[in-house]
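Methods — Computational structure assignment.
A single polypeptide chain was analysed. Its primary sequence is given first, followed by the predicted tertiary structure written as structure tokens.
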Amino acid sequence: MKRTLSKMLVASGLLLGSSLLGVSYAADVIVSKPDAAKGEQLYANGDAARGILACASCHGAAGNSTLPVNPNLAGMPHEYIAKQLYEFQSKDGATPVRRSLDGANSVMTAIATPLTDTDIKNVSYYLSLQKLDYEKAATASKEASMERGQHIWRGGLVERGVPACAACHGPAGAGIPGQFPRLAGQFPTYIAEQLKLFRSNDRSNSPMMHDIADRMSDSDIAAVADYAAGLR
């Protein structure tokens, strides 16, 4: 009886861990620790033999991007980064769930598709260990829309069924590991672009975010994106 109960508890624990991560690769991440050193090598140098570009050329040293079109990745939860890389991929001609405007493949599709499961685990783990340089990170710059952005972030738009962004991304924009990304210090133009891609469903990897963005105007998006960038 005790042995049966023990097995049931172990099985329940494994199921709970997998459901919290919410992605197919989660169990593998748990049982085999990724290699941060190999992740750093791939991130910094790529792999020319396999046609894999260095991630650092777009996302900056240690994931601190200097280009607003490319997001900061330093310190992001490895589960979140890995999920996005999988969703950029196009395997056997399948349409990626993360696409660019008007359904075109993102530039990330060509970069992510050659990556193996091990590559993705390693580079995601490496980035999760890095620190975002908040002194150089993006911040809010539009004083005129600050109050509107704060209102949406903290309280949402009740009349349109838009929940408070802070409910999922946290009061300080730190996100929730494995579920919702950090937005504090992210480029406001990048945040705004992603909200519009969610709204158009060109980025179709989060039905919840599509429903939220679909109820927001361009000015709502611009205001909350700028406010989020300034959170610390």
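Note: The longest helix spans residues 2-21.
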